[in-house]
Amino acid sequence: MDYFQQKNGVVHAENIPLPEIASEVGTPVYIYSRATLERHARVFREGLKDAGKIHLAFAVKANPNLAVLRILANQGYGADVVSGGELERALAAGMKAEDIVFSGVGKSREELTLGLDKAIGQFNLESEEEGEMLAAIAAARGEKASATLRVNPDVDAGTHAKISTGKKENKFGVAIDIAPDIYARLAKLEGLDLRGVAVHIGSQLQNLDPLEHCYVRMGELVGQLRDAGHQISHVDLGGGLGVPYKPEDNPPSPAEYGAMVARITKDWDVTLMFEPGRVIAGNSGVMVTKVVRIKPGVNSDFVIIDAAMNDLMRPAIYDAWHHFEAVEPTGEKMIASIVGPICESSDIFTKEREVDRVATDDLGIFRTAGAYGATMANTYNSRPLVPEVLVDGDQYAVVAERIEPATIMAAEHVPDWLK
Ligand SMILES: *Cc1c(COP(=O)(O)O)cnc(C)c1O
Question: If you write DSSP's letter for every residue of 161-186 in order, what string do you get?
Fold first, then answer.
């Protein structure tokens, strides 16, 4: 359910017609709906109502916009961050330090120190070496860092290879069979308060089976660690729940997910932690674009739009499908390849797909662009950095400005010795 619906033949974000925002802010532009974000945050929490004590940490990498993070902070969400920059953002948006979890395989010495300086709630360690480094830094300060050990359960998430993280050949976590030995060595270190285990097997999961299989294995591991004398108080079950990108997609609902979690974890007696990203933000945003012109092609027309792969990378890097719709549809359809202006053949959003008929200067939207959308945008081909707008009922605000090439050029320098 989202609040991007047609009213009087025009797609609105909540109560605002999209052409109004497009004419004021320009295109391409990302538009987020506050009501949708809040709804998804609430539904995810409600889904876990039978799962005992829970901690929710929004995966900041899915949508790091400060206004979006503020909305989620107000919903009682903490943050799952994967860099020092995301950590600073989560704090700037009003998330409590104690509600921040720091994930990622490559946390540097500086980032680990930053996490300690800010007194974040938990580090999710992805290797024994990282645990040793964190322990040494914390011990030198006379502190103990709260941490879990991220485990790689060798489970195939059944999703796109580039967003799978829990197979043994992936770089994330430590292999589950050697986890107890590593855990035992890390648990002895002075600077660590090792309090549990973490897992995250991938993103855009369409089916609960891999998650269930993974959580069963985590339950066995918790038993094994307790038998070895460790106190396990926290288990982080990660994120990964999929969202519908196509009208016919039917991923598991948060309620179905929550029921599975409650069933598998009922005897664990821990605080369960979750790191949802896409399921909160995905359908809370659309990208609005304008048609530059229609160019006849061999198999179908090319609809050339003013958005490109630099603004929304997912189709180019994950072969992802984003549903396209005209903002003021006529009811007519066309077979079209919708492409951007960038000089790369991967700058294509739909390949010979049936879509709403559009013409030069018409507006269109790509749905489900609220997660892994603007955050991955870049300025390739010296294009501006795409802006973001947040809608709240009858009002809206630009929550990230368009950054023009001149601003980017101002940060570049031709050395004197070339003049
Ligand atoms: C990306 C990521 C998430 C969020 O994944 P979604 O599929 O967006 O829910 C959660 N935890 C970790 C460690 C991640 O890297």
Answer: GGGB--STTSSSSEETTTHHHHHHHH
pLDDT of residue 161: 80
Pocket residue to mutate for ligand 1, from 72, 83, 101, 103, most atoms within 8 A of Cβ: 103
Cα(123) to centroid(ligand 1), Å: 15
- How far is the centre of ligand 1, averaged over its atoms, from the C-alpha of 237 (Å)? 10
Residue 60: Cβ-neighbour burial (10 angstroms; 0-12, 13-18, 19+): buried
Asked if 100 contacts 120 with a C-beta cutoff of 8 angstroms, the reply is yes
Q: Which two tokens stand for residue 222?
A: 């918790």
Contacts of 269 (CB under 8 A, 6+ apart): none
pLDDT at 169: 84
- Closest ligand 1 atom number to CA of residue 372: 8
pTM of structure: 0.97
| Centroid of ligand 1 to alpha carbon of 317 (angstroms) | 17
Q: Is 59 in the pocket of ligand 1 (CB under 6 A)?
A: yes
What are the residues whose beta carbons fall under 8 Å from the beta carbon of 105, sequence distance 6 or more? 126, 127, 130, 171, 172
Q: Which two tokens stand for residue 294?
A: 């229609």
Q: Angle at Cα 267 formed by Cα 263 and Cα 273, nearest 5°? A: 75
- To test the ligand 1 pocket, which listed residue (80, 81, 206) has its Cβ within 8 A of the most ligand atoms? 80
Task: Label residue 409 left, alpha or beta by phi (over 0 means left) and psi (-120 to 50 means alpha).
Answer: alpha
90 within 8 A of 277, measured Cβ to Cβ: no
Between the CA of 246 and the centroid of ligand 1 the distance, in Å, is: 21
Locate the ligand 1 atom nearest the alpha carbon of residue 278 and give its number: 8
Average pLDDT across each block of 10 residues of the chain; the chain has 419 residues. List them in order.
96 98 98 98 98 98 98 98 98 98 98 98 98 98 98 87 82 95 98 98 93 97 98 98 94 98 98 98 98 96 98 96 98 98 97 98 98 98 98 98 98 95
pLDDT of residue 13: 98
Q: Say how many C-beta atoms besides its own lie within 10 A of residue 10's C-beta.
A: 15
Cβ(237) – ligand 1 distance below 6 Å: no
**List of domains in the chain:** 4-32+282-409 (2.40.37.10), 34-280 (3.20.20.10)
pLDDT at 349: 98
Q: Is 131 in the pocket of ligand 1 (CB under 6 A)?
A: no
CA distance readout (Å), 84 to 117, 150, 341: 11, 19, 34
